[in-house]
Amino acid sequence: MIDPHEIERLEASARRIRANILRQIHVAGSGHPGGSMSCVEILTALFVHRIQPPAGWFGRNARDRVILSKGHAAPALYAAFAEVGMIPDAELDTLRQLGSRLQGHPDRTRLPEVEMSTGSLGQGLSVSLGIALALELRNEPYYSYAILGDGEINSGQIWEAVAYAGAHKVDRLVAILDANGIQNDGRIEEVLELRPYAPKFEAFGWAVRECDGQTMAEVVAAVDWASSDAPGKKPRLVIAHTTKGAGVSFMSDRADWHSHTINDAQLTAALEEVMG
After folding, report:
1. Is residue 254 a contact partner of residue 34, using CB atoms and an 8 Å limit?
2. SS3 sequence, the chain?
3. Backbone angles phi, psi at 95, to 5 degrees
4. Going from the N-terminus, what domains does the chain have, and what CATH number goes with each?
5. What pTM value is reported for the model?
6. For 26, phi and psi rounded to 5 degrees?
7. Most buried residue, 146, 167, 201, 209, by most Cβ within 10 Å?
8. Rounded to whole angstroms, what are the CA distances from 73 to 43, 147, 196, 244?
9. What is the C-alpha to C-alpha distance for residues 228 and 27, in angstroms, rounded to an integer?
10. pLDDT one digit per residue (tens) for the chain, 276 residues
């Protein structure tokens, strides 16, 4: 049973992360709010609950690794970094500005706290797999997490990594699927329907757990399950059923909010909803 006070703490963090996503995109004048808002609970469960990075955490070799494979959701990653003190809050106002460390997609050459430069979809799971193999070889009690989008599951490279990880029982690998049902070109069923996901991953030898990706207690329980011995000697997949633009009614489940600016009036209305 998860401590309800912990869930309250995490929900407060998620509200601040959402607010900072909105502010970043408003200041930048461009960005990807829909997919950033849908993965907030996932990032909160990983960084604020699971990792809770102390000072100097990123410089360590022995630690958990998190790759945001769906790199267009970079504002969510940066807001999570700020929430746990990895970057200053004030730096969030520099999103997409010339010379900024906070590029439109994560760039580790500018911001070393980024585990992998992402944005070309489909590559993050392969790199996470390599990290998981290294953790296994070093017999370290850490995990390699890859946050994927369900439009990204269209990529063939994803399924190569899925097949390899399952065949070699790479149990330090955790894929978390932000399944919001919408990608850049429209709804999943209109572009390339691959659901249901669970039996496909299970056929490749993965342990799978599904959760409501916008309910903090469920996401935390799923992350805790994936970060334990409970699934056995298998790679792990958490399918988080989420909503594009979660937290803001006029963005919610809207394909046109995949990539979109936020004007002054929209920011005010969205912040009122997010912060309650």
Report:
1. yes
2. CCCHHHHHHHHHHHHHHHHHHHHHHHHHCCCCHHHHHHCHHHHHHHHHHHHCCCCCHHHCCCCCEEEECCHHHHHHHHHHHHHCCCCCHHHHHHCCCCCCCCCCCCCCCCCCCCCCCCCCCCCHHHHHHHHHHHHHHCCCCCCEEEEEECCHHHCHHHHHHHHHHHHCCCCCEEEEEEECCEECCEEHHHHCCCCCCHHHHHHCCCEEEEEECCCHHHHHHHHHHHCCCCCCCCCEEEEEECCCCCCCCCCCCCHHHCCCCCCHHHHHHHHHHHHC
3. -50, 130
4. 4-275 (3.40.50.970)
5. 0.98
6. -65, -45
7. 146
8. 11, 10, 24, 11
9. 40
10. 789 999 999 999 999 999 999 999 999 999 999 999 999 999 999 999 999 999 888 888 889 999 999 999 999 999 999 999 999 999 999 999 999 999 999 999 999 999 999 999 999 999 999 999 999 999 999 999 999 999 999 999 999 999 999 999 999 999 999 999 999 999 999 999 999 999 999 999 999 999 999 999 999 999 999 999 999 999 999 999 999 999 999 999 999 999 999 999 999 999 999 998
Residue 264 has which token pair?
């002054």
Rounding to the nearest 10 degrees, give the CA dihedral for residues 187, 201, 131, 167.
-150
